[in-house]
Predict the structure of CobQ/CobB/MinD/ParA nucleotide binding domain-containing protein.
Amino acid sequence: MKTILVANQKGGCGKTNTAITIATALAAKGYQVALADADTQKSTLQWLKQRPDTAYKIRSLDWRNENSIGDVPKDIEYLIIDAPGAVSGEHAEQLISESHAIITPLQPSFFDLNSTKKFLKRLQDIKRIRKGKVDILLLANRVKYHSMKSQEVQDFFKKVEHEPIAWISERTAYGQQAMQGLSIFDHQQKRFVDIQKQWQPILDRIIEDDTEWF
């Protein structure tokens, strides 16, 4: 089983949307997927409750209680964890001890920059990360489509000192689908596939699968 932790201490960066999008992408590919909610806001659990029976199957795990961490069905191939905002101390060690990679979504704003830089620095204090056993993947998230290639936005992400692995544009489709317990990867129409392609670089990094996605 491969475990992916989606984490950032900055609220509103799109952490939950990142977790549900990646989980659905994997489920659509045919993998056995579980989505663990370790955040007290339980946004992921609420999304899963809304999810139609006809949608790609994603197992729901409630990891808000620290005693539940690590409890996963044996047939799961990929586990996605929606981390709490404050990933620190023993709780952080527990979650990261389960993880093969950490995905950190970040929006191009001054507040996200400062918060994320502190978060990434704090992660380096954790032994497992310091030893290079966990990949840290930065996701440029909710970037306005027309500004994605602008020098200003490019320069912003250079300040993080961590090159984004993928660039995700701001789209209303994410919110519209989430309200129904769905994700962009639950659809095959061209307008959704065009958005899905932005996730290809990060999917390639976390999945050992040479077959085509789109």
Q: What stands out?
A: The mean pLDDT is 84. Residues 47 and 178 are 7 Å apart (CA to CA). The beta strands are 2-6, 33-37, 59-62, 78-82, 101-106, 135-143, 166-169.
